[in-house]
Amino acid sequence: xxxxxxxxxxxxxxxxxxxxxxxxxxxxxxxxxxxxxxxxxxxxxxxxxxxxxxxxxxxxxxxxxxxxxxxxxxxxxxxxxxxxxxxxxxxxxxxxxxxxxxxxxxxxxxxxxxxxxxxxxxxxxxxxxxxxxxxxxxxxxxxxxxxxxxxxxxxxxxxxxxxxxxxxxxxxxxxxxxxxxxxxxxxxxxxxxxxxxxxxxxxxxxxxxxxxxxxxxxxxxxxxxxxxxxxxxxxxxxxxxxxxxxxxxxxxxxxxxxxxxxxxxxxxxxxxxxxxxxxxxxxxxxxxxxxxxxxxxxxxxxxxxxxxxxxxxxxxxxxxxxxx
Length: 324
Hints:
Layout: E1 8-9, H1 15-40, H2 45-73, E2 85-86, H3 94-97, H4 102-126, H5 130-157, H6 160-192, H7 194-204, H8 207-232, H9 243-262, H10 270-295, H11 300-323
Parallel strand pairs: 1-2
Helix pairs in contact: 1-2, 1-4, 2-5, 4-5, 6-8, 6-9, 6-10, 6-11, 7-8, 7-11, 8-9, 9-10, 10-11
């Protein structure tokens, strides 16, 4: 590949290099599974044991590959890794894995097994040595069966009631870390900016000025809410998650909540812009009510009454002040 001159193409690798690449890949995958296990162990010990078992499976593959390599090519294994081969399947950096949810980790592990199967099938097809081709074909079949192996490990370490408990815990953590701060930010951004935006709109009937006021109010509120959420609780005792995650969720959603009904004022025609902004406000309020019902288990009618009534009062205050 001309734009990646430092990488080899897979079809140009020798059988010695293919085996070296397979060995390093198995080492990496075992290390990743152990990292997942350590990441999950404090909160999801049963799932951690599943990944411990999968790491042991990868260790077994690595030993078989090394034995074959030593028999064919000697004791010195060339350093060849995924990043040295163009188009080879990549793995997430460890700092991304540290923030992944339980279900995201499970999904990533399934994709790792599928990618390993594809690699071994292609590698076996390109090898002419009978022993090498046999081993690579066997490993491809085993990687294809790993979903079943993972199922057996889950049956041993993760019975249905334990998995349900862990899934519920993961869902609660998601709500506490992302949904709750994000919902608070969306409510604050959508409702608190109504008064300044519509007061400016009705007072000046200048769409550009209204947009600038809305932009300033939205960004300012987002920064304020983000820092307030992050500084209010370090998450250690409450279990609500990392402060930066909650601050990010709150700040971004606050800004978006305000920008939703500020952006229509980029339209130069005042009446059209205001009509669209009002429609956007109602969409935002209904979205807030839906999120409350979906994730916070608030009865939909009560959530709708609270949010729509509050938004209507703030909108009316802004319109009256701007028209006065």
